[in-house]
Amino acid sequence: MKKIMISMTLLLAVLAAQAQSDPKFASKQARKEMRKERKEQRITVRQLEGTDVSEQSKAQFQSDFGDMPDVTWSRDLYFDKATFTNSKGTKISAFYDYNGQLVGTSTPSSFASLPMSAQQEIMKHYTNYQDAPVIFYDDNESNETDMILYGVQFEDADNYFIEVADKKGRPVVLKVTPAGEVSWFTDLPTK
Question: Most CB atoms closer than 10 Å: which of 42, 116, 154, 158?
Fold first, then answer.
C-alpha cells in the first residue's frame, strides 16, 4: 500500500510539472509573475538630468560612428539618443547612458529577418505579424547598463522585438533572440 501511495504521489508530481504552461505563451497570471520577477531583478538605470544632450554623449558618438552628417539628437529620462543614417542607408538609433557611454543601437527590421523557427512559432500563436514593426536591438557588450524599450528594462543582450496581436487581438511585444527563442516581452496599450 505504501508503494502504491508513493507511486501515485510521484505520478501526480510528474503530471503537475508537465502541466505547467510554457512561459512564451503565458497566461495573465504568469505574465504578472514575470513582471514581478523583472521588477525585483531590475538594476536602477540612472536618470539623466536636464534637457540638453550631454557633450560626453556627442563626443563618444563621434568616436563610435565618425562624422555622420544627418545626426539628430534627443534626450529622454534615461538616455541620450542619436538617430542617423549609416553608409548603407539604414536608419540607426544609438543610445548613450548617464556617463556618455554607448548602451546599444536599434535598427528597423522585418518579420522575414527573424530566425525561421521564431517565424513559425509566431505564425502559430499570433496574428498581424506580416507587416508588424520589428526592431533589432544590438547591445554594447562592454557597457553593463541595461536598456529600456517599450517602457520595460531588460538585460544586456542582442534581441529582436516585434509588435503583434495575440489570438484575442490584444497588442503585445515579443522578444526574439538571434537563436530563435520567442518570449512575451510586454503588453501594448490598446488603440
Answer: 154
